[in-house]
Write a structure and sequence with these properties.
alpha/beta, nine-stranded mixed β-sheet
Amino acid sequence: METPYVAVDLDVLDRNVRSMAASATARGLALRPHAKTHKTIEIARRQLEQGAAGLTVATVREAEIFADGGAGDLFIAYPVWPSPERARRLRALAERVALRLGVDSAESADALARAVGPLDVLVEVDSGHHRSGVQPHEAKGLAEAAARAGHRVLGIFTFPGHGYGPGSQPQAALDEARALAGADPGAGVRSGGSTPTAGLAGAGPLTEIRPGVYVFNDAQQVELGTCDFDAVALTVAATVVSRTGNRAIVDAGSKILGADRLAWATGFGRLPDFPEARVAALSEHHATIEFPDAVPARGDLLRVAPNHVCATVNLVDELVVVSGGGQVDQWRVAARGANT
């Protein structure tokens, strides 16, 4: 294979899929993984075969692609605003899959009802991430407004995204539980969860979790302590093309690794085979990696775990699937660029 390319270790991937499924089952939680991470039909099928209740997606186009791939139960966890064309597509989707949408305002609920018709919806609650969603005490009123518009309100959902920070997971999980309990203790579905907080979801208001990154994991999850390097299934294969001092330059830059770097991250990625090394800088087609000791030679192949795996997957057309040190398959990133 010519580098750079995105490699997925099939054995690690399958272990991650099985582990999350077993963990959710043991705690009495439904698992509805977020497919925006992998965007790949083959991985979605693996998740469903392991007992996932359905898939979570971010856009109508993602829902269409996974429906085409055989998924029959989809949640668009997003406050979709129905343009005329999007309304037509939602109507078509609702005729062939069990479809549920997120709403976070009476205006969007009314607009969906007028443009699409009655739908199954979940009310979005802000549990501390402060993105979309209503405050917990407003959820009951919004649920009533959505019902008056003709929708069937299945429950409530939230995203504890503020758990993406060192040491913040316990507080984010507690905030999530309090928000869901305060929104409507009698709600049917109470959906939440993220990869950093999924392990803390236990007895309480949650009935469903929606982690996404766990299938691959990434450098952020390692630095958050969510996983170790042996649970990182996706890496970018790169070749050392230059070196100077304690630095090596590889042929994988921001156009394949992505450019995400949260303020607390120690670099632009990590190397599972060199835990003390750091990706110190990125250009479009270069990554500068600093090593504390011996620097790999020119021509050496390195594995780089990106900071944010969701962004990396969306930058490539295919995933190279490896097992036992060799390539065993190649999967198309079917939902790449599916932003509408």
